[in-house]
Amino acid sequence: MHVSADRLLLFGATGDLAKRMLLPSLCALDGEGLLPERLRIIGTARSALDDAGYRALARKAIEAHLPEERRGRLDPFLARLAYQPLDATDPAGFAALAARVRDGNEVAGLVIFLSTAPALFEPTIAGLREAGLTGGEVRIGLEKPLGSDMASSRAINDAVAAAFAEERIFRIDHYLGKETVQNLLALRFANVLFEPVWNRSMIHSVQITVAESVGLEGRGGYYDGAGALRDMVQNHMLQLLALVAMEPPTSFAATAVRDEKVKVLRALRKVSAGECVRGQYAGGTAGGKAVPGYAEELGAASETETFVALRAHVDNWRWQGVPFYLRTGKRLAERVTEIVVEFRPVPFSIFGRRGAKTVPNRLVIGIQPEENITLNLMAKLPGLDRGGLRLREVPLDIAMADAFSGKQRRIAYERLLLDLIEGDQTLFVRRDEVEAQWAWIDSIRAGWAEAKAAPRPYPAGSWGPAEATALAARDGVRWHDE
Ligand code: BG6
Fold first, then answer.
1. At what angle do helices 431-451 and 150-161 cross, to 10 degrees?
2. Distance in Å, CA 231 to ligand 1 centroid
3. Global model pTM greater than 0.90
4. Residues near 368 by Cβ (< 8 Å), separated by ≥ 6?
5. Is 236 in the active site?
6. Which of 2, 65, 174, 236 is flagged as catalytic?
7. I need a surface site. Which of 153, 185, 370, 406 has the fewest CB within 10 A?
8. 152 pLDDT tier (thresholds 50, 70, 90)
9. Which of 22, 174, 370 to mutate for ligand 1's pocket (most ligand atoms within 8 Å of CB)?
10. What structural domains does the chain harbor?
């Protein structure tokens, strides 16, 4: 275990992520006595604030984004905060920042969190290095986007690696901080039931959906340059896929878990043009209200996809021949993240002659908004069966909220910030994983560029373009909601 932190230096301290997630998460952890007693939090960003100004900003953000019962005693938390303005593109400012951070102490207990525009990564790392804030045990957390393709991601990773050893770099994918995502590992590896059937002999297909009902949310500047493939598939969805498909790690520890994930990511087969659907939302409805299309919301015509569905394959013994359907998009019918594992049909139905149909078993792992695990099984409809026997799918249902009703539900960043502060890398993404993710994503984008395929329009509030339904239907698969 590393040295526990006594200073957290937060870049992007006045940004949206800091206001919505980071400050509320830190405050919630503090309310439960989980932050090291001596931890000071130094925020930095371009805005010309002083400590009092930053504390006022933090108070407002916490009051807006953290339920009152989780706030604990807000004033002692705010007293941990300080602020130092910095223009990261100007190397001269780092000396003053370093003086503020050091405050006469060694930097051993320093943890840095970078939540800034990608263009600021390299000057920030250089400035930190120059100011002597990168040595010894200093750890750094990096928030996405970490580049926009393999080349830019490597450039960022190289810049970070010049100042920090990989064991001190914590790349965040906030999906790994979600309780239900971690629960996937518990489901697979803390039960004996699933592993023997978790392979090509018993599984017909896997679906992973991350559907959002929101549109651009004012993030057009970033999103239009990224698109759904890079914004969601490159990171969150591939991490989900890796957790579903990986071999059992030898322990729940950083190296063991990440070694297994990266093998899956490297085994992803290149997706062909016919296995991929791009879409962009047109006007439609959301939450019962009329909403504009993407281009109108953006204020310009665009070829960026806000939806992507694709069929992936993991080329190894366990998964040969099992399609993994991935689907994500903005302005879809509902907000839902789920994984659906469809098993193979029974090899022979003894009920067939009596006219009863069987449906393949399905395991549905709901990640959000509902956290539940449902195993759909066939059962006989009660009755004397004089008109023929009838079977129906019935759910074996675990609603996590009921099973663990007394337990606190947390913001994903609470777990990740605490792990960063305590130095546990298990739920962070290693460089080789990120690069395997980019290699696959770049190959898909190269295919798109070659095919010059413009995104298909879909109405806001729908499940995406009809081509996405057809993509799955070719293998006899229906998306779970259709
Ligand atoms: C972010 C994306 O990484 O994840 C956003 O940049 C997206 O576009 C968000 O809305 C979704 O996260 P969550 O936790 O709300 O599912």
1. 160
2. 8
3. yes
4. 178, 180, 335, 336, 337
5. yes
6. 236
7. 406
8. very high
9. 174
10. 7-172 (3.40.50.720), 176-411+430-473 (3.30.360.10)
